[in-house]
Every structure is written in structure tokens, then in C-alpha cells.
Amino acid sequence: MGVLTFSLHSFTVPQRERLSSSNLSISQCVIKMGNPEMIYSNLFLKNSPPLRLHLRKQCTSHGFHLFCGAQMEAFPSLHPLKRQSVANSSLRRFDQPRPFHITTSQSYSSPLKAVINSETQETSNELIVENEKIGVLLLNLGGPETLEDVQPFLFNLFADPDIIRLPRLFRFLQNPLATFISISRAPKSKEGYASIGGGSPLRKITDAQAEELKKSLIEKDIPAKVYVGMRYWHPFTEEAIELIKRDQITKLVVLPLYPQFSISTSGSSLRLLENIFREDEYLATKMQHTVIPSWYQRKGYIIANANLIEMELQKFKFPDEVMIFFSAHGVPLAYVEEAGDPYKAEMEECVDLIMEELEHRHISNSYTLAYQSRVGPIEWLKPYTDQTIVDLAQRGIKSLLAVPISFVSEHIETLEEIDVEYKELALKSGIQEWGRVPALGCEPNFISDLANAVIESLPYVGAMAVSDLKARQSLVPLGSVEELLAVYDGKRAEMPPPVTVWEWGWTMSAETWNGRSAMIIFLILLFLEVVTDEGLLHQFGVFPYLRR
Ligand SMILES: C=CC1=C(C)c2cc3[nH]c(cc4nc(cc5[nH]c(cc1n2)c(C)c5CCC(=O)O)C(CCC(=O)O)=C4C)c(C)c3C=C
Ligand SMILES: [Fe+2]
Fold first, then answer.
1. More reliable by pLDDT, 463 or 89
2. 138, pLDDT greater than 90
3. Model's pTM, two decimal places?
4. Model ipTM?
């Protein structure tokens, strides 16, 4: 039995702080293994343990980052519960007597020799690595491509129980309610989409990111196919899965294009995947997967953001005096407070890491974080972007640089909400100079770092299911979609819906109501309408329309 020991001094101070709060025993990282003679390269044995053993003779902080990539560097800053489950699973693997192979001569720039060998080949568009076909599934929200798409897109969004959660008794009303809300909201949304050219650019940008990621992976010796699966519009996740099956992918890395995890975004897409995986024999038996749940803490992502901020600051008359204004998409407060959504914590840590990086460059501007895009009058994460802009103007701030921190593509919320609405509000409120950092899009450092994230996750693909009987019986391997969902919002807590009745003008006095009771009353009315064929909706001719 050999023992390899790594001490914590290889980590940076913030890394160490985050690590010290994790459940991993990492004052030193001790890994037991079988025969030390067998320390050779081959991390990619089918069903091999998920050991991230890119061991190096020199254990620099970067080197250690590689070794521990997904396990020590990325996981410690995640939700404590998730850390625990990942740590448990990983340590369980370490205890296994199964021999495995590692290399002692990997360099930081070529971690993949452990994963892939010289026999790697690409034949007629088929990407094969040691008889494995690697796929990467990028998950995103999707957006309407034409104005006609807007209402059905909104229907899909509001029909998602991770966006509107009805009390169990009223679940059957999810679709009628989604129809109603989407029809009511469509005119306002269409105006927004019309003003940015008649549709969302999200699909084009995500396709371009997929293409660049594929190139970057090939450059790093990992030939993989990259698929795009949208939650609410084309190409739907189901369409991507069909392609994945057609291509007979055997190892899939699921990568939500949201840097920070939220139940309402990555969580919703994973929930959908869980259902698809459960019902499909090929996916359950022939393909293994792993999920990279969030990646806001990755060095490459942080550096790419800092680069863009630094560049935009230079466009101001007095760069030092500009306040950096991080504006993230909001979620209803109950997601965080009642369902345990880690979104807010991850967002705050992300902002801290970017500011830390800027500090290293001697950029010490003041900064703030606020949340945008709330829908309906229930409480969302605060402070709200619009109110914060007004407050800052009143406090005498003259220059603001907006950073769309939760988005990696341009879309309606950057191009219309930030660039038009918030800019107008800022200038009207007394801000004199307004700037906006572009979304990362295909920025090369960012794409390259995503490719590294994929590569670092490869040894984990499907690995956790092997050790755990319960997981083996389950169609979704432990430590992947299912485990993530169990950790975040496992009970799928009932929460107030983000949209409530009065937004559509039923009664002005409803603004004083509690969101939940208003929703329940609305649902009762809707229920009565369905049962009795009489009521307000029939009176206004809305209901027959809903039935079509
Ligand atoms: C981190 C990103 C996002 C979170 C969190 C999120 C939560 C969330 N969103 C809505 C309602 C709407 N979102 C809409 C568009 C939209 N949302 C995101 C991202 C997050 N949403 C993106 C990238 C987009 C744009 C897609 C595009 O068309 O380019 C819309 C539609 C636009 C509109 O009518 O305003 C709605 C509605 C809720 C309710 C929610 C959390 C519960
Ligand atoms: Fe949204």
C-alpha cells in the first residue's frame, strides 16, 4: 500500500480559506492506493475510480490545481452539502483496493496524455478516444428567434415547474396558467425582442461557443463532439439528446452555460435531463456522464472577466473613479431562503474573486452587486438593479460600468434591459458616464478555460456509479445529475410563484396582498372557470382561446 501526501501550502490563501470550510480532510491530502509499481498513465479506464491523479514531481499551486481540479479546487467553494456528498463519494473511491495508473511526469500544459493516448483518432467525423466517444452537452435557456416564437417560448418557460411551482394540489393547472401568463406577457416581451432585432441572439452565440469549444478541445488533444441543448426553445435538450444517441456518445460531460448554479436555470435543465436519462435505455446503459454544475470560481473565467473590465474601464475619462456595477439576473428570494438555492452565495463569491484579481492588477475601484430582471411583485434577491442605480446617483456617483455577471452571451437582458433601460435610468438619475462590459461570448481565454474544465471532469465520467450499489441500480449515476438534484432542492420545496395575478391587472388592491394567497385565490378562480365554464376569463373571451 503506497501513500501519497500533499500539503495544503500549495494553495493560495483564498483557496485555503474555502478549502478549510469543506468537509474534505485536507490539512493534508492522503491518498491510499494499490501497488505503487503501477503508477502509470491511464486515468480513463472504463469504470476506473474517479481519481484526479495528474501527479507531478513539482506540486505547484497550478500543478495541484490540475491534480485536484474538480475535486479540491472547484468543489470546496460549492454548497456545503454538495461538498460533503462529493467528498464522501470521492473518498469512498480512494478506499477501493482496485489498482490504478497514474503518471508522475504530467506537465500542466498537457494533462490529457493521461486521458488519451497516441492512438487517438478522428475518423469520418467520428471522434473516438480509446474506444470511447466523448460528447459535451452545453445547456442554456434558449430564446425566441422570431417575434412569433415569443409566446410559445414564454409558455415553455412558465410551464416549467422550476420556474412556477404550484402547490401539489394545483399542479394540473400548470399548463393553463403558463398559457395565460405567456399570452399576457407576450406583447411586452415582443417589444423588447423587436428592439434587439426581432429575436434572441442566444442560439447563434451558443452555437458559436460550441464550435470554439470543440476546436479548443481538439487543440488540447481531446476530440469531442459538442452539442447545444436549450431548455425553452430550439435546439431543445431533447433534440441534442437525439443527436448524442445518434452519434453513439459513450462519455458525456454536461456543462450548463451558467457560471453560477441556480435551481431555476442549471437545476431546471438537470431535472429535465434526469427524466430523459431515466426513460432511455441507451442513455442508461451505454453512456456515462458527469455534470460540471458551476464554474464561476475557475481561474480562467475570473481572468477573462477581469480582462474585459480592465479594458472597458480605460474607455472612461477617469477610470479610477468609475464604480464597477455587477448586475446579475435575479431569482425570487424564496429560491435562496426556502429551497437552498446556492445562487446568491456563488454570485457573491464570484464577484469577490473578480475583485481580488483586479486588486492584483492594482485596480481598486469601488464596486457593488445588484440583481436585475425580476418578474412580478413578489420579493426577489436584493438589492434590485434599478433601485441601486437611483441610490448610487443620489449618493453622488457619476460613472458606472455595468458587468452582466450571470450571463456569458448577449441577449435581451444585456442588449435591452441593461443597454437601454438601465442606461436611460442611470442618465436620468444623474449618472454622467455609463459603460457596459460585453458578455464573454467566444473570448478565447474563457473558451480555453471551459475546455480545461471539460478535460478535468473526464476522469469523473460515470465513475461514481461503480462503487455504490444504490447508484448502480439507479439509471443516473451517483455524483451526477441525480446527486446534484438531491443536494440542491431535493424536496423541490413549494415556493411562491415569481409571477402573481395582479400583474395582469385583475385588481390594483392586490398589490398589498401576500403573493401566495393571491396565487391560491387566482388558482381557485381558474379552477372554478374550468369546472363551471363560467367566470371572468369566459366573459373576456380568454378561456375559449386557452382551450384551442
Ligand atoms: C442566470 C440566469 C437566469 C436566471 C437565474 C433566470 C431566472 C428566471 N428568469 C425568469 C423569467 C424570464 N427569463 C427570461 C429570459 C431570460 N432569462 C435568462 C437567464 C436567467 N433567468 C436569459 C439568458 C434570458 C434571455 C433569453 C433570450 O431570449 O435571449 C424571460 C423572457 C424575456 C422576458 O419576457 O423578459 C422571462 C419571462 C424567471 C421567472 C426566473 C426565476 C424564477
Ligand atoms: Fe430569466
1. 463
2. yes
3. 0.72
4. 0.94
Looking at residue 416, what is its pLDDT?
97
Closest CA to 313 of 436, 444, 441, 440: 436
- Selection from 290, 157, 301 nearest residue 231 by Cα: 157
Contact 136, 227 (CB under 8 A): yes
Classify burial at 13, counting beta carbons within 10 Å of its beta carbon; exposed 0-12, middle 13-18, buried 19 or more: exposed
**Could you give the domains of the chain?**
134-296+444-493 (3.40.50.1400), 303-436 (3.40.50.1400), 509-540 (no CATH)
Ligand 1 centre to CA of 210 (Å) is 21
Report how far ligand 1's centroid is from the alpha carbon of 399 (Å). Answer: 27
- What is the distance in A from the centroid of ligand 2 to the CA of 397? 29
Cα-based distances in Å from 507 to 52, 500, 510, 513, 522: 59, 11, 6, 11, 11
Beta bridge partners of 367: 324
CA of 138 to the centre of ligand 2 (A): 17
Q: Which ligand sits nearest to residue 157's alpha carbon?
A: 1
Q: Report the separation in Å between the CA atom of 236 and the middle of ligand 1, taken as the mean of its atom positions.
A: 16
What percent of the chain shows pLDDT beyond 70? 62
**In terms of Cα–Cα distance, which of 377, 327, 367, 323 is closest to 347?**
327
Tell me 385's DSSP state: H
Give residue 519's pLDDT: 62
- Measured from CB, residues less than 6 Å from any atom of ligand 1 are 141, 143, 157, 163, 185, 189, 200, 202, 258, 262, 264-265, 329, 331-332, 375, 406-407, 411-413, 498
As a whole number of Å, the end-to-end CA separation of the chain is 69
Atom of ligand 1 nearest to the CA of 417: 35
The ligand placed nearest to the CA atom of residue 178 is 1
Model confidence at 145: pLDDT above 60: yes
The number of the ligand nearest the C-alpha atom of 411 reads: 1
**Alpha-carbon span 473 to 305, nearest angstrom:** 42
Q: Rounded to an integer, what is the distance from CA 43 to the centroid of its chain?
A: 27
Other beta carbons less than 10 A from residue 529's beta carbon: 19
- More confident position, 370 or 540: 370
Q: Is pLDDT of 114 > 60?
A: no
What is the DSSP secondary structure assignment for residue 114, as one 8-state letter?
G
